[in-house]
Design brief:
The protein contains 18 helices and 22 strands. It is an alpha+beta fold and 557 residues long. The protein folds into 4 domains: 94 residues, Tumour Suppressor Smad4 (Sandwich), CATH 2.60.200.20; 110 residues, Tumour Suppressor Smad4; 83 residues; 181 residues, no CATH class. The strands form 4 sheets. A 6-stranded antiparallel beta sheet has the order 2-1-11-10-7-8. A 6-stranded antiparallel beta sheet has the order 13-12-22-21-18-19, with no helix packed on it. It has a 5-stranded mixed beta sheet with strand order 4-3-5-6-9, with no helix packed on it.
């Protein structure tokens, strides 16, 4: 049993597999591989169920379509169904084992039924076998008979995989021919796509999901025995010679195409795109390069295309930055990082992006938009040269954000409020009503206030000791919460920074071990490209731990 998919726009391109379960998608690891930017890496999964029935289900947010309808849960697919992956349309068909046996039997035997033995002649006809086992017979009593989905057809076959005018059956001087009319799904005779073909008794016509068998009791419709004798003569020798010639041709074609013509062709295209970049035609060259990167380029041409893309990205980002369009510049750089990573020649891009984060954060802070500013600072990762600056700014803005509610209060009132929150262990949360903010307000009036300094040291000790206890028990995620809150109060403490690093490392190892124990595929160590893919989310405040841990209400200290 074979599952077969043919490109609708070019049915001669066929994908076949005998696997019981296989994938369709943009990844080369898929059995059915489609070069389509609109397809997911693993877009759909096809499974062979009982009774040789195939089912398909979607694996990504963009669902697979079957005959134009989106599919989420598994559904059965039949011969002639149109499966759409991204923007690529595939024609599905099943090639069963009995078809091979039937074909072999037809080749080895020629049966001629004498009219004297079988009764009166009924003439040539097509027999349509339906899925329920019933059949219909259509006599070929005209010189030309149209088959298709259209109402004008003599033999009407209703299915999306059948064209309105699919093919015609013609009588040419006593011989019967089939002529293909469909541009998207050509007719097949004995599993071979044809344009015009003479048919003989027993030949099978495949039209969409339908199979029509040509039956005739006329002697002229028996396939000539001469053809079979010639086909059998020297079969082994001719097959061996044909295979040898084919291998030589394939080897020569491979070397000529993949080692010569293909790199030369890509080099010419890349040179033309480089000229567009020099003329500052950025949008046109960007589109062309993105289309090329979607192809499987040779290594040298792939590196060249990536270098040109990086050059365009930086030029466009600088132009936006000069115009004050910092958010647009950030999006431009993020897009490159998510798609192409930070390898050569884009090693400096992450730091450039973090510098833009700082500029955007400073703009927000100058307008008193402290939460928005902290979102930008929290997008800067620990590996960045700007990380220490960002953490210090977060700590400073966190205090400034809350000072507005304390400006009119005097020290006695602030002490009372601070002590109340301290006793209740509301150290950093909720916003505008916590001990740390009140003690900082006291220190802004009296920098040497011993009570405020003592309480802040006690809070730091609490976060450090609690974090160390959780760390000792192997509860890395809980430990991180307390170490990070300590870091918010004192972003320069090197010991706490080391604890945060150790917890993150052990937490990652713990997650990987759990996945291994559950027999799930163990993820590979993240590449530089994958490490930076969180940047757009953090920039929107969805992943920054500061925003998660401090702004929600009801948090414990």
């Amino acid at each position: 049993m074979k599952a077969r998919f043919a490109l609708k726009e070019n049915p001669h391109v066929i994908f076949e597999t005998e696997r019981k379960e296989f994938f369709i998608g943009r990844s080369k690891e898929c059995e059915i591989f489609v070069k389509d930017l609109h397809a997911h890496r693993r877009h759909a999964m096809v499974s062979e169920e009982q009774d040789h029935i195939y089912s398909i289900k979607s694996l990504g947010q963009n669902p697979v379509l079957v005959n134009g309808s989106p599919v989420h849960d598994p559904i059965a697919i039949k011969d002639g169904d149109i499966v759409t992956v991204g923007k690529t349309e595939l024609l599905f068909s099943i090639e069963k084992e009995e078809q091979f046996a039937e074909k072999q039997e037809c080749e080895d035997k020629t049966m001629f039924l004498s009219p004297d033995l079988v009764g009166p002649k009924v003439g040539p006809r097509l027999v349509l076998t339906k899925e329920n086992g019933q059949s219909e017979s259509y006599p070929l009593d005209r010189r030309q008979i149209l088959i298709g989905r259209s109402a004008e057809a003599r033999i009407v076959l209703q299915h999306p995989g059948v064209s309105g005018r699919h093919c015609t059956i013609e009588d040419r001087n006593g011989s019967v021919f089939v002529m293909n009319l469909s541009k998207v799904n050509p007719v097949r005779v004995n599993d071979q796509f044809v344009s015009v073909e003479r048919i003989y008794g027993g030949d099978r016509l495949k039209i969409g999901p339908f199979t029509l068998t040509y039956i005739s009791d006329r002697p002229e419709d028996v396939r000539p025995v001469k053809e079979k004798i010639i086909a059998r003569m020297g079969l082994k020798s001719r097959v061996a010679l044909a295979v040898l010639v084919l291998l030589v041709l394939l080897a020569g074609s491979y070397i000529g195409y993949f080692k010569g013509y293909r790199p030369w062709k890509f080099d010419r295209i890349l040179d033309a795109l480089a000229g567009q970049i020099e003329r500052k035609e950025y949008q046109a060259s960007l589109k062309g390069l993105e289309e090329m990167m979607a192809l499987e380029l040779p290594p040298r041409q792939g590196e060249k295309a990536r270098g040109l893309l990086f050059k365009i990205t930086m030029q466009m980002a600088r132009q936006m930055e000069e115009k004050g369009q910092l958010v647009e510049a950030r999006s431009q750089l993020n897009r490159f990082l998510v798609t192409y990573g930070t390898g050569r020649p884009a090693e400096a891009l992450p730091n450039h992006l973090d510098r833009i984060h700082i500029k955007i954060a400073q703009q927000h802070a100058s307008r008193g938009e402290y939460e928005a500013a902290m979102r930008e600072y929290s997008a800067i990762g620990e590996q960045s040269r700007y990380f220490a600056e960002a953490q210090g700014s977060i700590s400073r803005l966190w205090v400034q954000h809350q000072q507005q509610s304390y400006r009119e209060k005097k020290i006695p009132e602030l002490v009372m409020e601070a002590e109340k929150n301290f006793i209740s262990k509301r150290y950093l949360v909720p916003v505008n009503d916590n001990a740390y903010a009140a003690y900082q307000a006291i220190l802004s009036i009296d920098p040497g206030n011993s009570l405020a300094l003592q309480r802040i040291d006690q809070m730091k000790a609490f976060y450090k000791e609690t974090g160390e206890l959780y760390m000792k028990d192997g509860e890395w995620e809980r430990a991180l919460i307390y170490f990070r809150r300590f870091n918010l109060i004192d972003p320069c403490d090197q010991e706490i920074k080391a604890c945060i690093f150790a917890c993150k490392k052990d937490l990652d190892r713990q997650i990987r071990l759990k996945k291994a124990d559950s027999k799930e595929p163990l993820p590979k160590a993240p590449a530089e490209r994958e490490k930076r893919q969180e940047t757009p989310e953090r920039a929107d405040g969805k992943s920054g731990w500061v925003m998660k841990q401090l702004f929600p209400e009801g948090e414990k200290p």
